[in-house]
Amino acid sequence: MPGEDHRRRLWQSNLAPSLPVAAEIDLDFLARQFRVSGGNIRNIIARELLDKHLKGLAIYGARHCDKIGMGFPGELAGRYPGRVWSIEPLVGRKGPQRGKKVFGLGKAPAYVVVAGGTRASLPAGELVAVRSSLTLGEVLDAIVYHGDVKDSVVRADPTELNQVYGAELLRRRDLMNEAFKLWQQRRP
Fold first, then answer.
1. How many angstroms separate the CA atoms of 50 and 44, rounded?
2. How buried is 153 (Cβ within 10 angstroms: 0-12 exposed, 13-18 middle, 19+ buried)?
3. Each residue's pLDDT tens digit in the chain (188 positions)?
């Protein structure tokens, strides 16, 4: 079980300063009063703060981003009903060609809403990487068509990222290093 100082740091590191109530929370009181683990601290924050202030989630990806079953965001769909929006690209050799025909797509990239429309009943397996027995509406809320263009590689420039998030990334790195040191000390 983490000590009081460690618990205070855990409370602090798991609370986003942008939360409407973050400034009102007495971290010293929480750390002193409640002897709980880091996992319990995260769960308490999620249940009591994040869940109540979360407006919506937009999840973009492929296969692992289905809104059904296991994984992310499938496990979140029930927890945040109506607030998880799953978006997938058309995949495979036939997905983009089939999508062009089904959705009337041309050369330009497109974002097509599936949820709540007639397209929700279309078979998903022909367009995205899922079992063929599922419909688009069961798996996702929208599709992304990247267009009839060749892929290009753009190298990342971390300058702006470091300017905006550098201090936070360094803080998180330091927390991870400190947690690793504590873990090493506990090992027999």
1. 9
2. exposed
3. 888 888 888 887 776 665 555 667 788 888 898 888 877 877 777 677 666 665 555 554 544 555 555 454 555 566 666 666 677 777 777 778 888 888 888 888 888 888 888 988 988 877 877 777 888 888 888 877 777 777 666 677 888 888 888 888 888 888 888 888 888 887 66
Picking from 61, 111, 58, 64, the residue whose alpha carbon sits closest to that of residue 80 is 58
Contact 50, 105 (CB under 8 A): no
- 């999508």: which residue's tokens? 99
On the CB side of 21, CA atoms within 13 Å amount to 10
Strand ranges in the chain using DSSP code E only, listed in sequence order = 57-60, 84-89, 110-113, 142-145
How is residue 56 written in tokens? 């919506």
CA-to-CA dists, residue 51 to 39, 115, 118, 144, 145, angstroms? 16, 23, 31, 28, 32
Question: What are the phi and psi torsion angles at 116 (to 5°)?
Answer: 75, 5
Q: How far is CA 108 from CA 93, 100, 115, 146, in A?
A: 18, 10, 22, 8
Tokens 């009943």 belong to: 121
Determine the residue type at 185. Q
Please state, in angstroms and rounded to a whole number, the distance separating the CA atoms of residues 73 and 80. 10
Alpha-helix residue ranges (DSSP H) falling in 108-158: 136-139
